[in-house]
Design brief:
Order of helices and strands: HHHEEEEHHE
Strand content: 15-25%
Helix content: 40-55%
Distance between the termini: 25 Å
Number of strands: 5
Number of domains: 2
Largest sheet: 3 strands, antiparallel
Shape: elongated
Radius of gyration: 31 Å
Strand order of the largest sheet: 3-4-5
Length: 243
């Protein structure tokens, strides 16, 4: 829209100057007008190119900012999944989640089938196999986060704020309630300082190759999901794909 207005303004100004040159300005001053017109044309070319390049540059910077936030959201998701595996539930305590990684252990299990004789009635017995799960050891949760900066996973990259973790329960099927979690951050916070009109458009994105909705999010309080709402290329780990 801005580019269109600049072009219209340029046409109007050029037309006005042409009329003024012909009707009011002495011929000996025409060279001055020529210099002014050349300068104006250069300015318009610059402005038009700037307006065209603005969304291109915005998208490039946006993807870099999003990639940094997605990286931390993935760590948080993995931490929440580990917490649920060990404790049976998610947690809204971010600092406690870091402590959990440092101190908790996964139980290592082994499944085996054991023969068992049961009485089916009337003095009749039956041999069945029963599955038994044995704990054969433990592994530090911290080992799963080797090389990952989980100590700083609560910080929203590029800001001085921290992620807010929300947890709850939903009824998956009648009578069966399961734990859920959600971590989200407003796109406007991630893109703070960038063009407001482009940020507004970004918050209205509906999907495809864009992060859908107003937030960058992982998990959901409305459905059983541990997924994020970002497109697949943020998961590829190849920097050239997000620039």
């Amino acid at each position: 829209m801005m580019t269109f207005l600049i072009i219209i303004a340029g046409i109007v100004v050029t037309g006005f100057l042409a009329y003024a040159i012909v009707n009011f300005i002495p011929r000996k001053l025409h060279w001055v007008i020529s210099v002014v017109l050349i300068a104006l044309a250069a300015f318009l070319v610059f402005k038009i190119n700037f307006e065209i390049q603005k969304p291109v540059q915005f998208n490039k910077e946006k993807k870099i900012k999003y990639a940094a936030v997605v990286k931390n959201l993935k760590i948080l998701r993995d931490a929440e999944v580990a917490h649920k595996k060990v404790t049976g539930k998610y947690t809204a305590n971010g600092e406690g989640l870091i402590k959990f990684i440092d101190t908790a252990k996964f139980a290592l299990t082994q499944t085996r089938n054991v023969a068992k004789t049961i009485n089916v009635g009337g003095g009749i017995t039956k041999e069945i196999e029963e599955r038994v799960v044995d704990t054969i050891g433990y592994e530090d949760v911290k080992n799963k986060f080797s090389g990952v900066d989980y100590k700083n996973m609560l910080t929203i990259p590029g800001t001085d704020q921290k992620f807010k973790i929300e947890v709850g329960e939903i009824e998956k099927i009648q009578g069966l309630f399961v734990p859920v979690f959600e971590i989200k951050v407003d796109k406007a916070l991630i893109l703070e300082g960038m063009d407001m009109n482009l940020i507004k458009q970004e918050k209205e994105a509906i999907g495809g190759e864009e992060v859908r909705g107003e937030y960058l999010r992982v998990g959901s309080l409305g459905e059983v999901s541990e997924d994020g709402n970002w497109p697949p290329f943020y998961d590829q780990g190849d920097k050239k794909d997000i620039e």
